[in-house]
Amino acid sequence: MRIITGKARGKKLAAPEGLSTRPTSARAKEAVFSVLQFSISGKRVLDLYAGSGQMALEALSRGAASAVAVDSSPEAVRIIKKNAEGSGLSDRLSVVRADAPGWIMSASSRKETFDIVFIDPPYAAGLIPDTLAALVKAGLLADGATVVCESADPGDVTSGRAELEEEFETLRISKYGVAYITYLSPRGRKD
Predict the structure, then answer these.
(1) What integer best gives the mean pLDDT of the chain?
(2) CA 128 to chain centre
(3) DSSP single-letter state for residue 187
């Protein structure tokens, strides 16, 4: 696993050991950043269920202004910090050990927003819908934000929840091996 391009191009990244973390495949990561390539520079990135931190670090390497990587695993947090230091990107990355939905709600009081959000929890956990709902409730999505969700089935993203389907527009769905990548954007508010 390496950073594909940008300031830290070619830097090798470590991944937490064991089966609890499943890194995004190189093919899927390359495709995601091909889609996002013109919308990364100067943006604020949030990487939830960050694992190795590879998505946040790739975005920083490509010119994102800052990133926050959130994971509940102490091993993942250690690996993310190691990867950030090894790639020379630690100055623009905040690493947080926390449960993602809990951190989202605590972040709402800081009034920060994110332009690009990566959501990649363990497939079987069913965490994407609750994470999307928490992001909306906390007001963490900037106008025009892009939310990139990785899942085993595109139906897992909203799980048919009407309030989420009203809140988000699906921009694109792509499949890479067993993974589906779903790109969402918050719908404009109609007050």
Answers:
(1) 90
(2) 11
(3) P
Within the chain, strands assigned E span 44-48, 66-71, 93-97, 114-119, 141-151, 168-176, 179-186
Q: Is the pLDDT of residue 19 over 50?
A: no
pTM of the model: 0.92
- pLDDT tens sequence across 116-160: 999 999 888 899 999 999 999 999 999 999 999 999 999 999 998
Which tokens sit at 101? 């939905």
Of the pLDDT bands very low, low, confident and very high (cuts 50, 70, 90), residue 191 is: very low
With contact defined as beta carbons under 8 Å apart, do 122 and 22 qualify? yes
Average pLDDT over residues 19-24: 58
Contact residues for 67 (Cβ-Cβ < 8 A; gap 6+): 44, 45, 46, 47, 56, 57, 59, 60, 92, 93, 94
Give strand pairing partners of 180. 151, 175
Could you tell me if 153 and 182 are in contact, meaning their C-beta atoms sit under 8 angstroms apart?
no
Query: By the 8 A CB rule, do 184 and 146 touch?
Result: yes
129: helix, strand or coil: helix
**73: helix, strand or coil:** coil
157 neighbors 190 (Cβ within 8 angstroms): no
Place of tokens 């950030």: 84
